[in-house]
Amino acid sequence: MEEKTISQKEKEVIIARLEATSPELFFSVGSDDKSFSKDQLIEEINKNTEIGNNFVKSQFEFLRALKDGSLMKTLTAQ
Amino acid sequence: MTRILLVSNAHHDNQTEYLTSWFEKVVEVAKKQNDIKIIELRKEDANRKNVVEMIEKENPQFIVFNGHGSDDAIGGFNKEILIKCDDNESVLSGKIVHSMACKSANVLGRRCVTLGTKCFIGYKENFGFWSTKQKTKEDQLNDPMASLFLSPAYEAIIALVEGNNAGDAYIRSQNMYKENILALITSKNTHHNTVVAASLNNNFQNQVCLGDQATSF
User: Fold this and answer.
1) ipTM of model over 0.90
2) Cβ contact B121:B98 at 8 Å
């Protein structure tokens, strides 16, 4: 299956959301030794790195699941 | 009979230091069980030679890997490959495995179960967490942001140590993920935004329990 390309608009949405995140928080992921500040994550997104692209994808998966109701259905299922 | 848990704590960067610190929660629960011996390989000791030797010598029933990884491998100190597909994955035959190594459940976990690993709990995509990047063990354990991510992840290990079967351990972990995601979505705390919730949801969706759900430690 061909992977969906991330649009500029999608990046901008996630960057705007990241900008509203506390500067005290850091994100650790993958095999990278460093923990990313929000500014570093924004840089990764702008540079189209694997970390940046995966971050945008997972954020949008969440937003779409929140929007279509499937997330709340999953979270509240017994 | 003594139950033996072998843990590899890579402990070479801030992420893996957090994982080591949080393993303390498992140690506390294990002490109450009275029949568990924990063998820890930490930092330089978390290397391939030691891991394989300890598995052969001590015959642990449960093995926990806290380090980096990939689809087909689990890493130790400084990312030295400990277990790899088409190489030495058969050493995990007959064991229960919990791996925090990113993506390792995707290919390696499935292969291990095919080759006789009783159960493999891990993540088929990247495992990520937000934290306030604390330096000391105490501060890492008291980091409320990291707790939202590491509590549910460690819940599976703790449940196994307490004697639950793998399927129930996985459900306990998944339920805690759900509670924490809901808490983030509904929280008024400005640190608890949906960016963080989305990252936690990613771990929740990608955690898998492969193999025999009825097996226990």
Assistant:
1) yes
2) yes
Which residue among A21, A28, A74 places its CB closest to the CB of B193? A21
Place of tokens 């230091």: B17
Q: Where is average pLDDT lowest: A20-34, A58-72, B56-70, B98-112?
A: A20-34
Question: How far does the CA of residue B79 sit from the closest CA of chain A (Å)?
Answer: 8
Domain housing B85: 3-211
* Contact assessment for residue B203 and residue B127, using Cβ atoms and an 8 Å cutoff: yes
What residues of chain B lie within 8 A of the CB of A74, using their CB? Answer: 178
- The number of domains in chain B is 1
The per-residue pLDDT for A31 is 76
Q: Which residues of A touch B15 (CB under 8 A)?
A: 28, 33, 35
**CATH of residue B53:** 3.40.50.1460
List of E strands, B22-150: 36-42, 62-66, 69-70, 73-75, 81-84, 96-99, 119-123, 128-131
Planar angle of CA A61, A63, A66, nearest 5 degrees: 105
